[in-house]
Amino acid sequence: MGLNTENNENIKINKDSSFTKFLNKFLSRTENHITCENNILDEEGLIECIEKARNDWTNAIRDFEYAEDEEIVDYYTYKIKACQVRYEYFLKIAKRKGITCK
After folding, report:
1. Would 1 be classed as within a structural domain?
2. Is 6 part of any domain?
3. How many structural domains comprise the chain?
4. Is the pLDDT reported for residue 79 higher than 80?
5. Has residue 77 been placed in a domain?
6. What is the domain extent for residue 81?
7. Among 39, 56, 47, residue whose Cα is nearest residue 91
8. Distance between CA atoms of 42 and 97, rounded to whole angstroms?
9. Does residue 25 fall inside a structural domain?
10. Which of 16, 23, 42, 60 has the fewest CB atoms in 10 Å of its CB?
């Protein structure tokens, strides 16, 4: 199975499309996730990461409820699961460290 690179040269990216703007907004959010994962060493940072992961999870559920296009519904389905796993991951780390909610 070979790649057809001739057709790929004809593809142009529309920087003003709503989908491109959506992706840029999403990619800027993922940068916050990366910095959040680096801050899990201290208690305050871990609690902040848990709160952010929970907010991301609830936002993904809300966005899923308003999604109309089939591809976007699929996207939010995966995003909900990813946010849930991330939230549970941070909770597991907090549990290991003995951090409790006051």
Report:
1. no
2. no
3. 1
4. yes
5. yes
6. 42-102
7. 47
8. 10
9. no
10. 16
